[in-house]
């Protein structure tokens, strides 16, 4: 069986015992999770800070790494539905059943948040859960492995620390649901492994999120909102605006406004700013730095390998064939690609894989109406993710499935159509039983 196999069997036995089904049990586990967040807040902040160079503000409640869980869980397992006349003495309902033993695989960029929010929904829905944090955010991984399981019931919840090799072996086991957050290329590997067991998946992936800026916008406000979204967590945010599409005139107007916003947020030397982060690792640093050779560096461009520092950078006149336009940037670099007008921007977006988010600064809804993406935010960046009333997820290359708020509970529930029939009034059933005489057929 191996270690992973034994662990999954242990959780499956607990699942089959029905332990996770009572509402009181789920509430108690969610409360324990709340205590973990409350009591270990300082440890969590320190671990994420040492992994990410996380800085003031990024640890706040807004988009950050310490969701309280409030508003993320939602109970309610049964919904009555209308019924037909022949079943009027019956009871018909949709039962939201837990799937069973589920696997949550998380990336490193918000190393707590991205396993915690799905975990809340998985517990609320009544599942047993294996959590696999990213091995790249190693301090957070260690903390979660050592401390989280002291709070949760270890018969039903486990943390596996695993790199690629061990995760590959973990995926050989049969899970009843897999919730994966990470890159599209690993998403394909996860879906292939899940297909062997016909295991349903949610894939929360990444990609290049376009940000269209029309000519009629308030340039200062656009610059502030875009610079905030791009440079939050040093650009390592799956829904960060990845590149700007605008006219050549708007590019000229944006430049001083972006410079002003960057200086306002991070001072004249962002390296000294307590509000500007670092790239997570050396490999990632080298990859992002190589993208600086695109277009012309209009703002920033300084790097320091020892610190894994890349200054907030704006690249102007970037060509679609440049390196920065070939992959998700996932760092503090913002290329501007010049387009003639909104129609050309729409064609540009539609010629590429469907992104996780599209941003459009415009009073015209055409960009939203004529494109497809996981989510959309008009006249701002990132903010749609803060509403738990909105589903969050990708489409096409940016993923499949949705979560946040009640959608997380639904994701981790099988919607089981149920009918309980009345045992009386057998006579009304006779038309459906053979023999199908001419009288029964109404001939
Ligand atoms: P990644 O795909 O490299 O890794 C994600 C997880 O998969 C990690 O836990 C890792 O250990 C595991 N993994 C890596 N290679 C594997 C393999 N071959 N087999 C099995 N498991 C493997 O992603 P990352 O670098 O950690 O995160 C960055 C990516 O995640 C970006 O593309 C970003 O856009 C995306 N992301 C998406 C969301 C979202 O909500 N849609 C959120 C955050 C990040």
TrEMBL record:
This is Aldehyde dehydrogenase. Keywords: NAD, Oxidoreductase. GO terms for molecular function: 3-chloroallyl aldehyde dehydrogenase activity; aldehyde dehydrogenase (NAD+) activity. Residues 19-413 form the Aldehyde dehydrogenase domain. The lineage of its organism: Eukaryota, Metazoa, Chordata, Craniata, Vertebrata. InterPro entries: Ald_DH/histidinol_DH, Ald_DH_C, Ald_DH_CS_CYS, Ald_DH_CS_GLU, Ald_DH_N, Aldehyde_DH_dom, Aldehyde_DH_NAD(P). PANTHER family: ALDEHYDE DEHYDROGENASE, ALDEHYDE DEHYDROGENASE FAMILY 3 MEMBER B1. The active site is at residues 204, 238.
